[in-house]
Here is the input.
Amino acid sequence: MSTSIARIEEFFKEEGLKYTLSEDYLRTSFITDNYRDQDGERSLFLVIKLEEDGEYFKLIAPHLYHYPEGPYAEAVFRALLVVSWKTKLLQFEFDEVDGEIRGIVEFPLEDSQLTRRQLMRCVNGIVRIVDEYHPVLERAIESGIVDFERAERAAKIEREADDIYGYIGKNEINGPGVPERVLAFED
Here is the structure.
């Protein structure tokens, strides 16, 4: 029993998320608050792929950053590793040929079906983690300084605001009475 791209597409439809379907992968993107792509857009592009006949799941954020060579490599890789350590979910990959840094969530499904809840945890997680830690990673790339304190304070304030909105029955993104969803989809 493996998972298919068609099953993942069903989950996206059920969640009301927009996507583009290719033969062997699904593409989507989300608006971000902090993260900016290489064109300066507040957008996180994601690719969902299945490998090994649907028994291995990959959620990839390609081209998150570009760091081919430079004086701050130690700081950049330290920051990437600390984010991976702190978050459990997100890992980073580095292509030493062209300097691409990508984010990835991957795991074996083997004989299990991917559930909608698992998928949405991965999608929500990667978007939120990349957005939350972008200032740290950007600063490491630009100046070689690794400082998590500011980003973690900002994230704490944002979580407290989300709790308050939840308590009063409103969601700042979706409005009153609408269940919280992934960050806004980019049109």
